[in-house]
Every structure is written in C-alpha cells, then in structure tokens.
C-alpha cells in the first residue's frame, strides 16, 4: 500500500529548489519572517513525506492536494503576483496588517503538524502492531474471479452502454450537472441513487476492473474506462472527472516505470490525452452556455404529471446555439482554462477568509458543524462574501476546505487536533481495505477520491453524508470482491514490478 513516488535523493533536490523559490516571497510578505519560514519548512516537510515516505494512497494524494492549495497558491501570490481566484471576504480589509498574515500562516502550520503527527502514529502502528497478515491481502490482491476472466470485454461494453444511457437521460433532464440546480426531480429519490452511482460507485468500480485487467496484462480494456470517464465528464459538466477517475490508475503504472508508460502503454496515453482535450473543450463550451448565456433557460420541474402540465418546457440546447455563444465568449473561456491548474485546488483562501472574519470562535464552529444545507446563502459564503448567483437555476459556492473549516474555531489546537484525527481515520479506513485484499488500483482511486472530498469540504453535515455514501460504495465493491470466495478463482499473478510492490507493501 506504500505510494512512494520518487527516491529521497530527488525529493531533497526538489525541496531545495522550492525553498529557493520561496525566498523570493519574503520581500512581499507583510508579517514576521520567523512565521514565514516556519510555514515554509513545515509544508515542504509535508511534501517530501508525500513524495518519498507516504504509507498509503490517501496520505500521498491528500498531502499533494493540500500542498498545492496552501503552499503553492501562497507562493504564486507572493512571488509571481498571481491573485487569489476565490473570494477572501474581510481579508481585503486587513491584508496589509502583518499580524493577520502571521496568524493565517500559523493556522496552516498547525494543520501541517496534525498531518505529520498522524503519519508518525500510523507508521508506529504498522511498525509494531502489524503482523504478517499482509500475506493474506497479497494473496487476495492477485486473484482474478473466473466470471471476469471469461468475458471482460462484455462487462466493459455493458458498463459503457449503461453510462451512455444515463448520460443521455441527464442531457435531457439535467438531473445532475455541476453548477446547475436539478431540472427534474424524480420520485422515490431516484436522483440520489443516480448521483450516488455516478459520483461514488462508478469510479471505484472502474478502478477495480482496471486492476483486474492489469493483473491479466490486458490493458486494451482500459480504453473503455477512459471513454466512460470522458462521457461522464461531459454529461455532468465536470472538468475534473477525467482526471479523478483515470490518473490514479496511471499513477500505478508511472510508479512502475515512466519509460514503459510512454512506450509499452503509449496508445493508452494518446487515447487519454486526446479525449482529455476533447472533454475539456466540450465541458468548457457547455458550462459557458449554461452559466453565462442569456439565451439558455433552466429551472427545476417535477416528474409529476399535474405539475409537468403546469410548467413550461425550457428551451433545448442545440449545436447552433452552443457555437454562436462560444464564438463571442472565447476569450473568457481561455482565461478560465489558463487559471484552472491553480484555481482547482482549495486551501489558502479559506484560511485567509476565516482568519480575517471577526466572529470566529467556538460558537461559530458549533454552528458550522450542525448546519444543514439549505437554499439560503451558506455560512462560508457570508464569511468569504462570495454571493454567487450568476444566473437563475445555477448554484455555486466557494469552499473553505478542511483547514478553513477547522479554523472557524479560532483555535490552533482544534486545527491541529482536527487534521490529526481526520487524517488518521482516513489512513486506517484505507488500511482496512488493503487488509481485506482489494487491488492497489482500487486503493489508489479510493485514496484520490477521499483526499479530494476532504480538501473540497464546505458544509460538514453534507460532508458526513458524502462520506457515508463513499463508504457504502466501497463496501459494495468489497462484497463484489469477496464474491470470489463463493466462486472458483483463477490466480493471475502478474510478473514484474506489480508483484514486487505488493510484496513490499505487506
């Protein structure tokens, strides 16, 4: 389950380069140099522990995402003058005061301490409490069920057809699209079921099947996974699905050998890059039309016959409308795509906004914990002063992220202890799935999604629900995996680095 990316030697070289880069930010930092360098060194330690010492996939991905959202965004702001994309609320009134900068960086530093403390404790647990039971998980990780070996292509084709069917329904009804309120409310909570399948179950299932294909050296079926991810990405207006669903599996191949990734798996890489470009372009055009075009209409309707008769049908999207709108909006779209690599990651803005907010404290923290999502302006929208309502029928909200959410308490101790407990819990959850023998491709995907959900936290109540949905999807995949015990198994031991990695992970 170890996810070491590069050796310690190369990590140290990278860290030295980043530290040298950060020195240029000292002149533009308004606060104390001491707090700046404490922040700098502790977050660079987080990065090096991720690249060369990560003990699980969730540990690797979470540290990388938080580093990008906190350290890298801040350095881009101080060194390169890149403005923060997300609103920071009252921070605009105090950004020239060094005291507030020092407090914000101390919040981030205490969060990093919590992450590192969770790493140390998890390492000690594995070092002194974990026995040779790992051999059992290794045995299970290299078993491929006979039902899959018999007809893998048919299983992928069925999955592709199901995804295509649901995507067509979504384009027609808009039951789940990023940034849009549901246009159709199906009875019996069907919206919830379809969303759960798309967001939680399907990516884990795809990664699990990709792992089975890797064990049998049948990488041709990975093309189906890339096509499905591209399809869902466009259907949900999500620019990140093609990354979230496929990159974690490519990461395993990258760890084996970068050379083989661009030679042996060259067709896979080309397919992914081409479809990623197509997907990103299509999603950008659709988002621009739905969110900014005055000619598009969108409203929530019901599948109830009486209600449906009383409501007017919204104007449908046509290719002509899409092309006409995007011709006049091309410059704006290019600007958004240009800022995407930096704006994608949540972190420093939430810390700054909550640090500057005058009413933070235990009462606000309790209010945030028990707040339920409503149609009204969210708590963090008030804190960050991000009242986003671009057009009727759209829904957007800035995100505080895990650290910003804990900073509602105005307590370094809660920030540190909160990140420590949450990270440790995530480590043990993934460790459980490793012990029961799910393949490393599933574990990589699971770790990526868990890390992404944590860094994108907004309303804790909704976060708990999403976490429960995620655990439900993981348990269902575990049942599918354990079905092997009831059916004849065929062991497909893959030769080479994958076997070595699995053995070293015990």
Automatic annotation (TrEMBL):
The chain crosses the membrane at residues 12-29, 35-53, 60-80, 100-125, 155-178, 190-212, 224-254, 269-290, 411-429, 461-480. Keywords: Membrane, Transmembrane, Transmembrane helix. The keyword Repeat does not apply. It comes from the Bacteria. This is Uncharacterized protein.
């Amino acid at each position: 389950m170890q996810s070491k990316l590069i050796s310690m030697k190369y990590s140290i070289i990278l860290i030295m380069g980043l530290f040298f880069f950060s020195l240029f930010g000292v002149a533009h930092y308004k606060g104390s140099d001491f707090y700046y360098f404490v922040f700098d060194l502790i977050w660079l330690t987080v990065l090096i522990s991720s690249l060369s010492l990560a003990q699980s996939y969730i540990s690797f991905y979470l540290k990388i995402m938080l580093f990008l959202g906190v350290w890298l965004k801040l350095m881009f702001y101080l060194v390169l003058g890149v403005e923060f994309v997300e609103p920071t609320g009252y921070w605009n009134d105090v950004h020239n005061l060094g005291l507030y900068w020092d407090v914000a960086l101390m919040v981030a530093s205490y969060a990093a301490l919590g992450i590192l403390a969770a790493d140390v404790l998890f390492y000690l647990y594995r070092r002194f409490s974990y026995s040779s039971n790992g051999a059992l998980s290794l045995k299970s990780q290299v078993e491929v069920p006979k039902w899959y070996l018999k007809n893998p292509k048919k299983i992928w084709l069925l999955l592709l057809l199901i995804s295509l069917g649901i995507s067509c329904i979504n384009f027609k009804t808009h039951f789940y699209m990023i940034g849009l309120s549901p246009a159709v409310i199906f009875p019996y909570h069907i919206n919830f079921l379809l969303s759960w399948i798309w967001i939680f179950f399907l990516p884990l299932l795809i990664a699990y099947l990709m792992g089975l294909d890797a064990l049998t050296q049948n990488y041709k079926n990975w093309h189906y996974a890339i096509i499905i991810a591209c399809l869902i990405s466009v259907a949900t207006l999500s620019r990140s699905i093609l990354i979230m669903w496929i990159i974690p599996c490519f990461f395993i191949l990258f760890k084996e050998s970068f050379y083989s990734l661009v030679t042996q798996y060259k067709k896979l890489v080309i397919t992914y890059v081409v479809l990623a470009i197509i997907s990103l372009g299509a999603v950008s055009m659709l988002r621009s039309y739905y969110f900014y075009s005055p000619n598009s209409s969108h409203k929530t309707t019901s599948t109830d016959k009486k209600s449906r008769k009383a409501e007017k049908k919204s104007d449908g999207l046509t290719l002509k409308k899409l092309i006409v709108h995007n011709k006049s909006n091309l410059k704006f779209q290019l600007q958004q795509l240009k800022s995407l690599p930096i704006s994608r990651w949540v972190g420093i803005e939430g810390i700054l906004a909550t640090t500057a907010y005058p009413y933070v404290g235990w009462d606000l923290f309790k209010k945030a914990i028990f707040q339920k999502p409503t149609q009204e302006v969210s708590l963090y929208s008030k804190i960050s002063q991000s009242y986003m309502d671009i057009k009727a029928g759209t829904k957007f909200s800035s995100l505080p992220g895990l650290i910003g959410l804990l900073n509602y308490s105005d307590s370094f101790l809660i920030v540190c202890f909160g990140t420590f407990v949450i990270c440790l819990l995530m480590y043990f959850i993934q460790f459980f799935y490793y012990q029961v023998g799910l393949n490393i491709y599933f574990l990589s995907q699971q770790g990526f999604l868990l890390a992404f959900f944590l860094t994108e936290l907004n309303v804790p109540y909704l976060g708990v629900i999403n976490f429960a949905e995620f655990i439900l999807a993981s348990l269902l995949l575990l049942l599918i995996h354990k079905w092997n015990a009831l059916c004849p198994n065929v062991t497909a031991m893959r030769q080479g680095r994958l076997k070595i990695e699995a053995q070293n992970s015990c």
